[in-house]
Amino acid sequence: MTNDAPGALSLIRKEVHSELTSYLTLQREYLSEIGSELIPVCDALESFLLDGGKRLRPLFAYAGFCASGLTPTQEDIRAFTSLELLQACALIHDDLMDGSDTRRGKPAIHRHFENLHQQGAMAGLSGKFGEAAAVLLGDLALVWSDHMLHTSGVTSDALLSALTVHDEMRIELMAGQYLDVRESGEKTPSVDRSLRIARYKSGKYTIERPLHLGLALAHRDSSERKNLMYILSSYGLPLGEAFQLRDDALGIFGDPAVTGKPAGDDLREGKRTVLMAMTLEKANHNQRSIIESSLGDPDLTSKQVEDVRAAIIETGAVKDVEDLIDGLLSSALEAANSDEIAPSARELLIELATSAIRRSH
Amino acid sequence: MTNDAPGALSLIRKEVHSELTSYLTLQREYLSEIGSELIPVCDALESFLLDGGKRLRPLFAYAGFCASGLTPTQEDIRAFTSLELLQACALIHDDLMDGSDTRRGKPAIHRHFENLHQQGAMAGLSGKFGEAAAVLLGDLALVWSDHMLHTSGVTSDALLSALTVHDEMRIELMAGQYLDVRESGEKTPSVDRSLRIARYKSGKYTIERPLHLGLALAHRDSSERKNLMYILSSYGLPLGEAFQLRDDALGIFGDPAVTGKPAGDDLREGKRTVLMAMTLEKANHNQRSIIESSLGDPDLTSKQVEDVRAAIIETGAVKDVEDLIDGLLSSALEAANSDEIAPSARELLIELATSAIRRSH
Fold first, then answer.
1. A124 neighbourhood in chain B, CB within 8 Å
2. How far is Cα A90 from Cα A14, in angstroms, rounded to an integer?
3. Which residues of A touch B204 (CB under 8 A)?
4. Which among A31, A43, A174 is the top mutation candidate for probing chain B, defined by the most B β-carbons within 10 Å of its own β-carbon?
5. Measured between CA atoms, how close is A31 to chain B, in angstroms?
6. Can you list the domains of chain A with their CATH numbers?
7. For chain B, what percent of residues have pLDDT higher than 90?
8. What is the pLDDT of residue B224?
9. The complex's ipTM?
C-alpha cells in the first residue's frame, strides 16, 4: 500500500461489497416470490459472495477504467462488481469438478447442499443433490453476473462497448478451464502447456480482461483506447502468470489457517501446475519417486505432505518459480509506469500488482 | 401445418440450422487457435446442436417478432437462434444432473467425454473427466448463446430491449431447474408444486419468454408492446404447461425409436412430473404399490415398465392429463386468434401450438 493513498484498495473493496449486498437483496426478493424453496439458494450464494473474496477482478476493472484518466461513477463500480458473480460461477463449478470439500474455510457449495439434503432427511441421494445444486448455483451466478452488468446503469454506449470484451473474457475462461481439466488427463506434465493454462485462466481472465472491461466502460475514443489496451495487456499478462505461479506455490506451501484450504490440498488433488511441471523436469530419480507416489493421493498424511514439500524445494523448482515471478512482476511494473497511463491509475496498478503477488492466500 | 403456408416452420428451422452452422464454424476457428485440445469440445457441441433439436425457442421468438406485424431480418433470426445455445446448456447440465446416458439417441455429453477419456487411455478417472467436461461445455454453450445474441447484428436499441427479457428468462430457467431438482428430494409428490415447475421450466422458459424476446427485438413502441406481451403470455403460459404435460406423457409412454430415449426412462429416473403426481393422487392401494415399488429403480425391466404403464392408465390420470392438455391448448389458441396479433403471426402461433402438443418426441 502506498503512503499517499492509504486504504485506496480497501475503500473500493467496501464499495464492491456494498453493491453485491444490494444486488443480492433484490435477487432474494425476486426468487423468494417464485418459491420459498429458493431461499437456501440465496443464503448459500450470499454467504459465498459476502463472507470472503479478494475482489481482484473488480479492482482490476477499476484500475483499467482509471487508466483513461476518468473517475468511475457508482454505476461503473456496479458494473465492475458483476465480475465477482462470474468468479463465483467459476469457483463453484471448479470445486465441483475437483471434488474440493472446502472453499474459504467453509464447505464447498456441493458439500453444503449435500449437508442440507442430509439434515432435511430428503428423498434420494445427498451427494447427487449436492452436485446438481452446485451445477445450478454456478449457472445462476453466471446469469446474475450478466444481469448485474446489464442493469448497472452505465450508458448504453458504455455497455455495448463492454459486452464485446466481456464475452471474449468468458469464452477464454471456459476454454482455459477445459484445458485445465484436460491437462489432468495427461500422463506427463508439461511446463509449456501449464503456462498456457495459466495464461488463459489467470493472465487473461483474472487480470487482462478485467482491465480491458474497465477501460471499455470508460469508453474513450477507440484509437486512444487501443494503445492503452495494449499497455494494459503488457501489464496484465505477465502479472496474471505470476499470480497463477503464486497460487501454485500457495496450493502446496500455503498456511491452511490463511488460505482456508487444507495443507497441501493441490498435492492431494494431483493438480498439474507450472510449479509441479518444473519440479518434475528438474527432479532426480529419488525426488521424482517421492513426489509421483504421493501426487493425487487423497489420503496423504501431513508427514507425507512434508516429505513432498521437502523434495520439491530440493529440486530447486521453488527458487526457479520465485525468480520467474520476480521477472514477471518487473515486466508488469514497467508497463504500469508507462506515461500513457493516468498517474492515479499507475499507483493503483502498482499496489494491485504487489498485493496480488506478495500475498499469503 | 396449415395449407396456405406449407413448410413455414421447416423453412425457419433451416435458417436456424444454417445460422448455427456459421456461428459454430467461427467458434471452432477461434478455439482451435487457443489449443488443438479444444477440437473435441467443438466436435461435441456441433454434433449436439446440428444433429437434432426441434428449434422450438427460436420458432417462438420468430412468431413473437411477427406478432408485431414486422418481418424478421437475417440478423433477427440470428438473435433468435442464440436460444438454441442456451437450450444446449440446459440439456447438457440436465443430463449430467439426472445421470441420463443418452440424448437424441446418442451418448449424453458427460458419457461422450467419459468415452473419449477411456479411448484415449488418459490419466485419472473417466467418469470424473466426463462430468467436468459436461459442466464446462454447458457453461460454454451458455456464454456462446449470449455472444451470439450480442453479435447478431440487430440494432443497439433492439439488443438493449432484448437483454432485459433475456436475463429474466435465464434467471427463471435456473430457478425452475433448481425447483425441479429440489422436487426429487420431496417424499410425497404434489400436483401444485409440479405445475409450478412446469410453469417456470416450460411455460416461461420455452414459450412465453422466447415470444417476448422476439417481440422486444421487433422493438415496437413500448405501450403497444405491453398489450401484445400480455396476449402472448395468455398464449404462451397455458401452451407451455400443456407442452410439459405432453413431455411427461412421452417420458413414460413415448416410443424410444422416436424420442431417442429408452422406454420408460422417466420411470427409471423416478422423475416427479405432474402426470406422476396426478397418478399417485388417484391411485388405489394396489396401483400405488405397483408404481411406488418401481419408480426410480434404474434396473427396471421392460415387463415392469409395461406393468407400471398399465397401472398409470388404470388410475385415469392419463385421461385427466389429456383433458388438461386439451383445455390448455384451447386457451392458447383463443389467445392466438386475438385481433391484436398480426395475421401472419396468428397462423404461425396456431401451427406451433398444434405441433408442440400433437408431437411424438
1. 184-185, 270, 296
2. 22
3. none
4. A174
5. 7
6. 8-353 (1.10.600.10)
7. 77
8. 74
9. 0.93
